[in-house]
Amino acid sequence: MPAARPPINEAERLAALHDCDVLDTASEESFDSVARLAARLVGCPIALVSLIDAERQWFKADVGLGVPETPRELAFCAHAILEPSQPLVVPDATADPRFATNALVTGPPDIRSYAGMPLVTQDGFALGTLCVIDKRPREFTPENLDTLRTLAQSVVTNLELRRALRRMRELAIAVDQRLVEVIDASPSAIVMVRCDGRIKAINRLARQDFGYDGAELVGKPIETLLPERFRAGHQGHRQGFMIAPTYRKMSERRDLMARRKDGSEFLVEIGLNPVEFEDESLILASIIDVTGQREVERQLEKQRQELVRSNADLEEFAYVASHDLKAPLRGISHLAEWIANDIATVASAETVEHLTLLRGRVKRLQTLQDGLLAYARVTKTDSGVDDVDVAELVADIATLLAPPPGFEIRFEGAQSVYRLQSTPLRVVLENLIGNAVKHHDRATGRIIVSARPVGDMIEFRVQDDGPGIPARFHERIFVIFQTLASRDDVESSGMGLAIVKKRIEQMGGKIWIESAPPERGSAFVFTWKGGT
């Protein structure tokens, strides 16, 4: 079995993994619950949170496997991290040359199918995967992969929190025999206070934050650093604390204010730590200016609320499309069947043909609607990659659009089958072909779709023989709600080409127009991630 090659950033990736401080740690419910949920929702007997170390894959969470680690050369997940932006899906390991002779396939646990979602940190390192395994060959649906993607993000969030905690610990200053020297070297603002509440020492960062020289504050009450409205009350709090001083972190208070020498105020978090120094009891107060942090938190909360609203809108759309839009289509289909049954004995052959055509188009619309609904609920990579015959896709779109009799829509090209995501491509081609028919200025017309590989992309061209588009409009027509023709002349929302451009850019491509009136014809050319 060929072992997976290391990623090109392997050294940095391993450093990021070790920075999480998670390898060889005890099981944790926050990880175990994700694995259990993945197994249940996808319907697999095995689910793992797998982390790829230098020579092994180690499992932070394990449902159904029962071993803590395996050699890296046997790891399916070592292949998955080579493509961090997409899941690795293996419907039948025995038919895949990468895994057919793998010891985990030919022997216990008898892997037959696998789906792994890379765990990618904010700085782009794939540390491992959240994966599910079945002991029988199977296909994984877009909904299965969407579930894994959502759960994998929660694992990544947990790992990122571990990295942050480790970095915070590394920033802590070790206690030195000379405490005053230590606090001055501290990366935090620190004030050393005697039991009577007077300042014994203040380090460099604290002096900078408050705008004082060290000598100015030595011997002054700590209340000097508080706004005047809080000083009287703080004296009582301080005296109560000194009766039984213990470590206290005051981060739960979000309204703590400090006062600079110039009278300006700023939000702070304060940690209090009693220490003994030269037979004297002291309090070390660490002070953090959190003004910027609070603003970041406010912005993050605003973004979170916007995301919640966006998700709610999407769910509402899915509900409407699933119920309010499907019902009329089902009604049309049933009505066509009833009519066909009622007139079966008297209908002409032409009438029967028309009813059959009507039912076929309704079914095609239902299928297309289901595909679009699924695509609306997922990200750009959620639609499965398949071998797509573009010629058949164009013919299907032409049948669905039902252009006027004088229009010809066809595919031309030596190669028509490409490996790509079909649902978003259908959306793009249907918009472009539909626009070519809608905005044509003659009763007859020709629309030719072609495709050719260009590097690791596919270049598509939708060519028509219409009136053409002046160069000054080549950018404007991709702006949402923009149309060239009057809406009284052509019914249009002005959204179609904006959606097309967004879909293409989501797939890593770009779109442009080739048209130079008065010569007739326009070509919409776009690139698309795919292969042959």
User: What number is the mean pLDDT?
Assistant: 82
Gyration radius, to the nearest Å? Answer: 33 Å
DSSP helix count?
14
Beta-strand percentage range: 15-25%
For this structure, the CATH topology of the largest domain is: Beta-Lactamase
CATH superfamily of the largest domain: GAF domain
Uncertain stretches: 172-177, 378-382, 486-494
Q: What does this protein look like?
A:
With 532 residues, this protein is of the alpha+beta class. It has 4 domains: 10-171, Beta-Lactamase, CATH 3.30.450; 179-289, PAS domain (Beta-Lactamase, 2-Layer Sandwich), CATH 3.30.450; 294-376; 385-529, 2-Layer Sandwich (Heat Shock Protein 90). It is built from 14 helices and 19 strands. It has helices spanning 10-19, 29-42, 76-80, 103-106, 142-171, 179-185, 204-210, 214-217, 228-243, 291-342, 349-376, 390-401, 422-438, 496-506; strands at residues 46-52, 56-63, 69-71, 88-90, 113-120, 126-134, 189-194, 199-202, 248-249, 257-259, 265-277, 280-289, 385-389, 407-411, 417-421, 445-454, 457-464, 511-514, 522-529. The chain has a 6-stranded antiparallel sheet with strand order 3-2-1-6-5-4. Strands 7, 8, 9, 10, 11 and 12 form a 6-stranded antiparallel sheet that branches. Helix 2 packs antiparallel against helix 5, helix 10 (291-342) runs antiparallel to helix 11 and helix 13 runs antiparallel to helix 14. The two termini are 25 Å apart. Residues 172-177, 378-382 and 486-494 have low confidence and may be disordered.
